[in-house]
Amino acid sequence: MFKMKVILLGILYLFARQAYCLHLTGKWKTSNYFLFFAKFGFQKTDIHDRINTQGYIYGNISSKSNSTDSMTLVVVDKEYFLGYYKNRSLTSSSNCASMFSIIDTVAFDTVCFEDGQEDFLRRIPCPIDGLCPEHQALPEKLVAGSQFTYQIQDVNQPKFWYISLVTCSHQTENAKSKCQWFNTQAEDDIEIDYDIWLVNGNPYTRHKNPFEFQFSYDNVDTVEIYIVFFVAYCIAVPLQFHSVWKRWHPLTRLLTLCMFLQFLGIFLNVVHVLKFAFDGVGVEKCDMVGNLAAIVSECLMILMLLLIAKGWTITRMVMKCKLLTFAVWAAYLCFDIFLFVWNRVILARAYVHTMYTRCSLLPPQVEIDVIEDIDEYQTWPGWLTLSFRLSIMVWFLLELRSTFLLENKPDKLDFYLHFGAGFLVWFIYLPIVAVIASQVSALWRFKLLLSVTNSADFIAYVVLMHMLWPTRAASYFQIQSNIGEFEEELEEFETEAIIGDIPSPKQDSAALVT
C-alpha cells in the first residue's frame, strides 16, 4: 500500500512539479539526499561567437536555515554523469567519494582543486542576498540578479548536460581529511529554495530567437513544426466541415471528428510551446490533453479505415463482426493511452527514485535510469503497441480482400485498389520510422518523430477528404444530403440485398429445365 502511495505521489509530482520544466523553481529538503533536476541539450558553440552561442545555467539557490552544512550543485555532461549517478548509494559510508571519483579528476574547486579545468560544482546554499563562494572573487561572470552562473561551451557538437543536487561536500575544516568528500545529510532537514534557468544563448542578447532560447536542443524547432501543422489544419478542417454540411454520412462525420480532435491537439500543443518559449514552463495540462486528443484521433482514424475496408456503406450496409471490430478498436485505444501514461509514469518513478531516501520502495525492475536516451517506442509497451498496429494492418488487408471479392462494379473496385495501397503505407510507416529513429541521436529524434508522424497523419486526412468529397464519392458511397434521405437509402439498399438473394421465377424454371 505504501509503495502504491509513493508511485501515485510520483505521478502527481510529475504533472505538478515546475522543476520538470526548464525554468526550475521549488524547494528541496536535504533529508532526500539526492535530487535530479533535468537533462538539457545545449547547442554547439560557434567559435567565432562564443558569448552569444554558448549555453547558460544561472539563478539563485539559498536557504533560510542557520545551518553551516553545505551541499553541492552538480552540472556535468553525460561522460561524467554516468559514474556520478550510478555510484550513488544510501547505504555506503563512502558514497560521496565514489560518486565524485571521476569528476574530481577534472573539476575546478576554489579550495581543493584550483588546477581543475572544468567548472562543474557549486557549494550551496549560497548566502541570502549574496553570491555563491565560487563567484565571490569574479562577480562580473554572473548573469545579473543571479547567485551563480555556468557557461556551457562545446565547439564540437550539441550535447546533453545534467543538473542535480546532492548532500555531499568537501571537508575543509579537518586538516587530516581535508578535501575528502563526506555526506552532510543531517538529522534536521534543511530546506533549500531554488530558482534556476537553463537557456541556449546569451541572456543579454536582444535579438535572440525566442523559439530556441528556452528550449533544450532536442526540442528546438518544435514551435515552428506545431505552427506549420496548425496553419495546415486551419485550412483543412473548415473545408471538411463544409463537406459534411453539404452531404450527411456517418463516414464523413467520423472523419470530421478525427480531424477536429487532431486540430485540437495541435492547437493545445501550440499554446504550450508558445508559453514555454517565453517563461520556460509552458502549460503542462495543455500538452497532456493535446497529446491525448491526438491519440484518440489516430485511433478513430483506424476504426474508420476498418469500416471502409469492410465495405460499409459502399458494398454492404450491414457491418459484419461489429462487436469484434469495436472490441479490437477499443483495445488498441487502451494500448495507446497506456503507452502514453507509461511514459509519464516512467519519468514519475525516476523522480520518486531520486527524491526518496529509501530506494527499495521500488522494485529493481522498474527503476528507470535518467541517462537512458530512449523514446516511447523503445519500451516494451511501445513494442506491444506497434505489434498491435501491425496486427490490425493484417486484419485490414484481409477485410479489404474479402470486400474486393464481393464487389463487381469497376468504379468501386478501382476505389478499393487505391484505398488499400495508400493506407497500407499509412499503417506500416510508424513501425519503420520507430526503428529508424532508434538509430538517430536523441538530440534529433523527437523532432524527427514529431515531423514524420504529423506529416503522415495530415496527408492521410487530406486523402480521405478527397475520397469522401461529395462530388467524387457519389459514384461509390451512399452519401445523401440529409439524415432522412440517408435512412431511406439504407432501407432500400438492404431490401435490394435481401431480394437479390431470392431467385426469381424465371431463374427457378431455368434451373428445373437444366
Structure description:
The protein is an alpha+beta fold and 514 residues long. The protein has 15 helices and ten strands. It has helices at residues 2-16, 50-53, 78-86, 95-99, 210-213, 222-246, 250-279, 284-309, 322-355, 380-406, 410-437, 442-468, 470-473, 483-500, 505-513, and strands spanning 23-29, 34-42, 55-63, 71-77, 121-124, 148-152, 159-166, 168-170, 181-183, 191-200. The strands form three sheets. The protein has a four-stranded antiparallel sheet with strand order 1-10-3-6, with no helix packed on it. Strands 2-7-4-5 form a four-stranded antiparallel sheet. The longest helix has 34 residues, at 322-355. Residues 1-21, 348-368, 479-486 and 492-514 have low confidence and may be disordered.
- Radius of gyration, in Å, reads 30 Å
Annotation, overall tally of beta strands: 10
Could you state the order of secondary-structure elements as H and E? HEEHEEHHEEEEEEHHHHHHHHHHH
Report the average pLDDT across residues.
Answer: 79
Q: What is the structural class? A: alpha+beta
The proportion of residues forming helix, as a percent range, comes to 40-55%
The largest pleated sheet is described as: 4 strands, antiparallel
Task: Provide the spatial order of strands within the biggest beta sheet.
Answer: 1-10-3-6
Report the portion of residues in β strands.
Answer: 5-15%
State the end-to-end distance.
79 Å
Low-confidence stretches: 1-21, 348-368, 479-486, 492-514
The geometry reads as elongated
- The count of helical stretches stands at 15
